[in-house]
Amino acid sequence: MTTTASTRAADFEGFYQAHFTGTVLLVYSFTADMQAAQDVAQEAFARAWQRWHQVSDYHDPLAWIRRVSINLTNSRWRRLRTARSYLERQREEHAAEVSPDHVAVVAALRRLPKNQRSALVLHYLADLSVEDVAQHLDAPVGTVKSWLHRGRSALAGTLMLETPEVTAPPAQEIRDRGQARRRVQLAAVTAGAAVVVAFVLAVLTVTAPSATPVVPALGTSPSAALPPGCLPGQIPVDLTLPVSESQVLVNVFNGTKTADLAVNVAADLRNRKITIGTVGDETEYRDLVAVLRYGPESLGEAQLLRAYLVVEPVKLEFDPQRTTADIDLVVGGQFKQFGSPTEMRQKIAQLGQPTLPPGTCKR
Predict the structure, then answer these.
(1) Could you list the residue range(s) of the whole structural domain that residue 352 is in?
(2) Is 269 within 8 Å of 276 (Cβ atoms)?
(3) Residues 20 and 44: beta-carbon distance below 8 Å
(4) Are residues 290 and 337 in the same domain?
(5) N or C end: fewer C-beta atoms under 10 angstroms in the chain?
(6) For residues 330 and 255, is the Cβ–Cβ distance under 8 A?
(7) Sheet holding 290-294: strands in order across?
(8) 36 and 102 co-located in one domain
(9) How far apart are CA 360 and CA 363, in angstroms?
(10) 131-162 pLDDT per residue, tens
């Protein structure tokens, strides 16, 4: 192992040892299943190691781990719901009993004052920062901290539950798991690329006007560079949702006659950690909440911004020729305000993953 690789591994191991237990307990609060929580946390850290050169440069790598863990947990719940739906169709006459701990926690939360209960759920289950909780509940940060402290004390006295013991597997096991994922993905990409190249060569051979096949030079054929599953002529697009708002670059334009609307909207987006580019005026859109213009590089970012708009109508304009990763937001006459972080997450869940525009394929 080179010095650089050794330093990188040591950096990851320190991060893993510091945050593995907290991540397991976070997932456990959602699942009430310690085995599932351990597995989800290990998978999240394995994915982090797989792209550690990128994740380690994030402003808050732990936020990335938490988001991946929650996404994996949500995927697990979807699988369980599918299985439950199947069992219901099979007319099963029995059902698993509700965990006594789950009943105790719900009962204890119900006995708390509404403000303490709301603060605890938003902070520990919805994973909002204290500042975001304060904004959502329209209360000072100091007051929210007081609610959290008193709520925790009340729950501890009521439940007398012990924190589950968590044993972190060796960091090398997590790195090996990440390396195994990388090898599987590389094999899949290589096999898919080989299929695409073979298809392109077959088409060129059949359609060539002369008896001699025309074979493009290696690395010069646009079709040969297409991702697996893309056909010649399709435009690859990035459907990945951004890890944080700071990855979203937005140009804000005023589509109304209200003075300084674009400036005020841009300031609101900056407060949400979104990066702002150009600010100016645009054609008037009196009957719309907003217009979003974006290209192949920013479908996920456009989805997040659309979720912040919460209400409709929002007009989406996909430009396949756009090569930049920024988004144009034209604020229309029906715009009132952006949603809260909680409303944004609910809207993201409602919208689901971004869909492929016509003539495109997933990168």
Answers:
(1) 245-362
(2) yes
(3) no
(4) yes
(5) N
(6) yes
(7) 275-281, 249-254, 327-331, 290-294, 314-318
(8) yes
(9) 9
(10) 888 887 888 888 888 888 887 777 766 554 44
